[in-house]
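Lecture 7 notes: from sequence to structure.

We start with a single chain of 113 residues. Read the sequence below before looking at the structure.
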Amino acid sequence: MLTQAEYTYDGDGNVIEMITRDRFHEASGIGPYRTGDQKTVADFGNFFKSPYVTRHPITADVCEQAARLRAQFNFKLPDALNLAAAAVYGCDRNLTNDARLTRCTSITVEVLS
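Now the structure, written as tokens:
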């Protein structure tokens, strides 16, 4: 789970507002919402509320790594951010259902069936 932060600056470059939002949860629930699978929607919600889920901010280092991944592999931005954050924060693997992401070499990508 990633928390994305957006900043608004004043004329002197000082942060005057910060908005955060969770990125992973919004992408993972699309299929069950489309099919009306309420059990899976509930399962996702419970999983992301679990004490075993840690939130990390999308930092400049994560963004730089994501840009490299997008340039090298043409990944979509959410995929690149997830992979980059996993690598930057020292995760041992990234779990996905998208086999295309296995092209990433900065972290082990495990495809779930």
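The chain has a mean pLDDT of 81. Keep this in mind for problem set 3.
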